[in-house]
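Translate structure to sequence.
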C-alpha cells in the first residue's frame, strides 16, 4: 500500500492535474469537429503506394515487421501491462530503408513499436540515429524503464531517448541534429501539441524530409497543415485510424 501511495505522489508531483483535465477536455472538443470524413475521402492503400515505389523493399518490409511484431508481443507478454499499440511501423520501416536518413525524430514512444521498426531499418542501413521524445506512464511502477520496452537491446546504440515531454525534449533534440530527414509525430494529439512540434522542428527539416502524423482524424491540424502550404500528401488507414504523410516524394 505504501509503495502505491508513493507512486501516486510522485505522479502528482510531475503532473498538474487541472492542466491534464483541460487537455482531455480540449481533445474531446477537437474530436467533435475532427477530420474523419475528410480522411476517409482522401485515404488510399499504403501497400499499393509503397509497392509502387519499390516492390522488393515492400516484401522485405512485410517480412521484417512480422518478425518485429512477434518478438514485441513476446516481450510485452513478459511484462504483463497494457502499453497500447504502435504507429504504422510498416510505413516507418519502409521510409527509413528507402530514404536512408541520417537523423529520424519521433514523438510518443510508449512500448516502442515504431522505435523498434525505425531502429531496425537504421541498423540494416548501417547509418543513422533515432531521436525520440516521450513522457513516462506514471500509473505504473518504475515507469521510465517501460519506455521502449519492445526495442531490442542490440539496437539501442543508434537511439537517443528524451523523456521530459515534447516541450522540453524537442528543443533539445533540434539543437542536437544538423537536419531532420524523417519526422514522426505520435504524442499529444491536440492541435496545440501538433503545432508546437512541427513549428519547433520545421527549420531543421531537410528539403526532402518525410513527415508522418498519426491519428489525423482527431482534428483538422493535418488537413490545414497540408492545404494551407500546398504540400503534397497521402492519407492511409491504419488500425481503424488514419495516418498522414507529406513530403516531396509522395507525388511519385
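Result:
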Amino acid at each position: 500500500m505504501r509503495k502505491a501511495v508513493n507512486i501516486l505522489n510522485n505522479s502528482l508531483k510531475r503532473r498538474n492535474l487541472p492542466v491534464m483535465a483541460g487537455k482531455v477536455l480540449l481533445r474531446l472538443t477537437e474530436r467533435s469537429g475532427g477530420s474523419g470524413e475528410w480522411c476517409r475521402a482522401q485515404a488510399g492503400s499504403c501497400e499499393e503506394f509503397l509497392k509502387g515505389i519499390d516492390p522488393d523493399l515492400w516484401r522485405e518490409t512485410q517480412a521484417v515487421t512480422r518478425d518485429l511484431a512477434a518478438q514485441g508481443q513476446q516481450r510485452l507478454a513478459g511484462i504483463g501491462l497494457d502499453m497500447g499499440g504502435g504507429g504504422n511501423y510498416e510505413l516507418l520501416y519502409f521510409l527509413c530503408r528507402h530514404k536512408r536518413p541520417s537523423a529520424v525524430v519521433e514523438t510518443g514512444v510508449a512500448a516502442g513499436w515504431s522505435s523498434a521498426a525505425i531502429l531496425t531499418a537504421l541498423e540494416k542501413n548501417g547509418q543513422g540515429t533515432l531521436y525520440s521524445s516521450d513522457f513516462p506512464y506514471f500509473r505504473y511502477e518504475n515507469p521510465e524503464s517501460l519506455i521502449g520496452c519492445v526495442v531490442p537491446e542490440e539496437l539501442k546504440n543508434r537511439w537517443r531517448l528524451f523523456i521530459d515531454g515534447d516541450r522540453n525534449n524537442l528543443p533539445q533534440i533540434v539543437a542536437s541534429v544538423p537536419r531532420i530527414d524523417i519526422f514522426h509525430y505520435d504524442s499529444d494529439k491536440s492541435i496545440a501539441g501538433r503545432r508546437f512540434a512541427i513549428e519547433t522542428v520545421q527549420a531543421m527539416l531537410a528539403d526532402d524530409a518525410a513527415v508522418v502524423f498519426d491519428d489525423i482524424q482527431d482534428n483538422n491540424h493535418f488537413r490545414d497543415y497540408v492545404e494551407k502550404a500546398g504540400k503534397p500528401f497521402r492519407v492511409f488507414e491504419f488500425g481503424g485510424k488514419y495516418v498522414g504523410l507529406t513530403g516531396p516524394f509522395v507525388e511519385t
